[in-house]
Amino acid sequence: MLKIKLVKSPIGKIESHKRTVRALGLRKIGQVVEKEDTPEIRGMIRTVDYMLEVTE
Hints:
One of its GO terms (cellular component) is cytosolic large ribosomal subunit. By secondary structure, this protein is α+β, with helices and mostly antiparallel strands.
């Protein structure tokens, strides 16, 4: 399982990056979600890694 925390706002970012953050289930700064460690989730994290903090 991965713990994903949103640390930067998606406001003003590329539209596809905003949608990726939303698809990860993140809505507010500081919110933490737990996701299964799959290649799909890893790819989404890699796309918007500059806005996230990830712990295993």
